[in-house]
Structures are given as C-alpha cells and as structure tokens.
Design brief:
This protein is mainly beta and 80 residues long. Helix content is 14%, strand content 40%. The longest helix has 7 residues, at 34-40.
Length: 80
C-alpha cells in the first residue's frame, strides 16, 4: 500500500494514510468554526474523510471530546 506518513512534533504518534484516499478530493473539507480555528492556529482546519481501512495510527494519543462547538455536535480531538 502506497502511504504518506506523518508524526506529531515529539514523534510519539504516527499517522499513515493511503495516497489513494488523500487524492479523493470530493472527501475533503474546511471548517472555520471557533474550535477548529483555535486547534489549528489558523483561520480554518482542513480534513479528509477516509475509510478506517485507509489509515493507521500508531502510538497512543490522548483523546477528548470537544463539546463546546458552534454546531452543538461533539468532535473527538487527539493530542500526543
């Protein structure tokens, strides 16, 4: 499987995503809600929706539910 891999700054967590999934541009999004702006440190957060079979996370991220969203929908966030 041809993948692109990235790590967090400390190297504890790695994420691998297939190139085919990343090239599926019809499954990308940009969110400009307050929470995504804060976590990205930018004007928006970008993401790609992929099937579980197209990505792999190694390491143990600390997960939390971000419940104070503009839409009222909880978002799961992860940090190393």
């Amino acid at each position: 499987m041809d993948c692109i891999t990235g790590t967090c700054l400390c190297g504890q967590i790695a994420v691998s995503v297939t190139k085919q999934a990343l090239n599926a541009t019809d499954k990308t999004y940009i969110c400009r809600c307050k929470n995504c702006r804060q976590t990205s440190g930018s004007f928006a957060s970008t993401g790609v929706i992929v099937a579980n079979s197209d990505f792999k996370i190694t390491g143990e991220p600390k997960l939390y539910q971000d419940r104070k969203t503009d839409s009222g929908t909880s978002i799961q966030r992860a940090f190393c």
